[in-house]
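Human: Can I borrow your eye for a moment on a structure tokenisation matter? Separate attempts, laid side by side, tell us more than any discussion would. Could you pick a protein and write out its sequence and tokenised fold? No explanation is needed for now; the record alone will do.

Assistant:
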Amino acid sequence: MNAAAVHRDWSAAAIAKIEADFNRSADTHLIPMALPGFPGIDLYFKDESSHPTGSLKHRLARSLFLYALANGWLRADAPVIEASSGSTAVSEAYFARLLGLPFIAVMPASTSPEKIAAIEFQGGRCHLVESACSINSESARLARETGGHFMDQFTYAERATDWRANNNIAESIFRQMAEEPHPVPEWIVCSAGTGGTSATLGRYVRYRRHPTRVLCADPQTSVFFDYYRDACAGCADPAMALAHGSRIEGIGRPRVEPSFIPSCVDAMVRVPDDLSLAAMRHVSAALGRRVGGSTGTNFVGVLRAAQVMRAAGRSGSIVTILCDSGERYAHSYYDPAWYARSGIEVESADYVIARAVAGGVLPPMPECGDLAG
């Protein structure tokens, strides 16, 4: 058998392993949570922390591996390399181990030790760099030097996911909402790391002709909001960049990523870090378990969408994403000393979120797009 045939057979067997793994996995839960200050508005969290690798990125990693295998990019024994602040790398390490492939995660040195430990538990190796802005170039260099494949989630996230069907997150949400009082959400609120989720959600609701709108909540230090605002004005610069990455791990980027598609998003809001983390603490208390910082960012977006609905006299539902568990952030978001070192205020931010949940108004935040409807 020639080398091409051997590679094709190996790829077919690898795809079969991933599909079998998918069949063993149940769908993630849809969890309701009360919004006392917004009667007639129902909130649901799509709990992506219940995936085998504990985050929303499990879906992305599966799609990226299937996409790379179908394109013939992965080879037996050759390493898989990814630029990731943590959760994508945890999930990709899981699939690499499933296929017997070495895995290297290139990530900022500031990544939480819990995420590093999770990657290593899945059999991956962590390659730490000082600057978040250099993880892509360093990943490409390692791929060249090792003969491996740079998965490049930030380029391929939006195209690797089948947004029409195949149990993507959007299809799952609408299927699970079918028996609820307001089965078609007014809003789905997400945040952007690669942009793949917002692209999937936006494409799906248009494809299915739902009136649902997508609100993207961006953390304080990220180019996505500025890029979206400029895209709405017809003057977006894809080369815009920041010197530092986001303090809310897993979302926000210092540069514009190819998978972020502004036209798939109906509106954006920029959320201050102190409010993201206060919202994280509120959701954790309400659900009785810790959630991550990106879920807090999403929840602030939920409150803003709920305020818009209330002002318009509209009832209905809002769905957002519980991205990952807070157990991965014991040494940061759940450590009082981290807040002191980071200069992030806690008490007043907690008050702002509690007041907003009870029906008060959030402080002004930069926003853009079709929020009013």
